[in-house]
What we know:
The protein has a domain at 1-78 and 135-247: L,D-transpeptidase catalytic domain-like (Beta Barrel). The chain contains eight helices and 15 strands. Strand 9 (145-148) and strand 10 (157-158) form a beta hairpin. It has an eight-stranded mixed beta barrel. The chain is of the alpha+beta class. The chain has helices spanning 9-20, 83-95, 100-103, 183-195, 199-207, 247-255, 286-289, 308-315; strands spanning 29-34, 39-44, 47-57, 66-75, 79-80, 107-110, 113-114, 131-134, 145-148, 157-158, 172-174, 178-180, 213-226, 230-232, 238-240.
Amino acid sequence: MNDIETPSPERLLANMEMWRWMPDDLGDFYVWVNIPEFLVRVVKNGEIIHEERIITGDMTNQTPIFSDVVETIYFNPRWNVPQSIKVLELYPSLARGGGSFQRQGLRMMRNGKYVDPRSVDWSRADIRNYDIYQPSGPGNALGIVKFTFPNKHAVYLHDTPTKNLFDAEVRTFSHGCMRVRNPMRLAEVLLEQDKGWSPDQVHQTQQSDPDEVAVPLSGKIPVHITYFTDLVGEDGTERLVKDVYGHEQRVKLALAGKFDQIAKGRDHLAPVKFSRVQYDGPDDWGFFFGGGPNGNQKRRYNPNNSSLNDFFNNMFGGF
C-alpha cells in the first residue's frame, strides 16, 4: 500500500480483473465515483465534463463498490438516522438522560406520532422501533442536496456542512456515503442533461422551499462506484493511486490463488445487534468516534473527547 509510485504487472492485472466486473455498457452519460482517487466525475460520450472531490467511508464503514442508477435529487433533504447510528450512538446517550438529542434538532416518531425521548424508559425500550430524523436546515448532516440511487447498502452522494475535510489528501471520513465538495454544481450538470435546466432553475428549486424538495429524474442516469488504483489519464499517461481499502491487494492474492491470505472485513449488510450495555461517562457521542478524522474509536469514556455537538459539527457532516 505504501509503494504507490511503482507500477507492476500484478497491479495492472488486478485492475484489469476489476474492470471485468463492470457492466458491458456504462452508458452515454453517467456518474463515476472512483474511491481511491476520492473523486466523482460526470462522463458524457466518453469525455469527462465534470470532476469534484469527495469524501468516502472510513476503514470501518467502507464505501461499497457497485453500479446503479440515479433516480432522485433531493434539495434541502432531511436526514433519516440509520439503525447502526441509532443503536451505537444515540441509544447510549439517551440511556444516560442526555439532552443533546434536542440540541442537535433531531426528531423522534413512533406510529406516526411525535415522541419526546425524555418520556421513554430507555432501560426497557428498543430504539430500533422509533423513527429518528433531522429536519431540513442549515445544520442538517446532509447539507442542501443529496443524490439517491436506492440500494441495499443505503449509501448515496450528498452535501456536507463540514467542508474543511476536503483539504485532506486521504478523505476516508464518512459512515459509507460519499460527500461531495460542491454538490450544487453536480446537480446543475445532471439536471441540465436530464431536464434541460439552467443553473438558475436549479438554485431557484433549492431555494423555493425550506423543507425537502424531491426532483425525480426523467431518465435514469447510471452511477458506477469503482475501485481502480491504476488508471490512464486523458493525456495517455499512467497514474497510480493508493490502495486505501486494500482491495487491490485482495484481488492480487485471489489471482495468485492465495485465498487463505485474504483479509476479510465485517458483513456491513448484517442486522445491527442491539444490547443494553451500561455506558459510563457524560452525554457525549464523541467517545465513539472522536471529534475528527483521528478520533478515539475505543468505546470508553475519555474526558478529552469532544461533546456531541462537536461530533456533529466536526465529524458528522453526513454519514
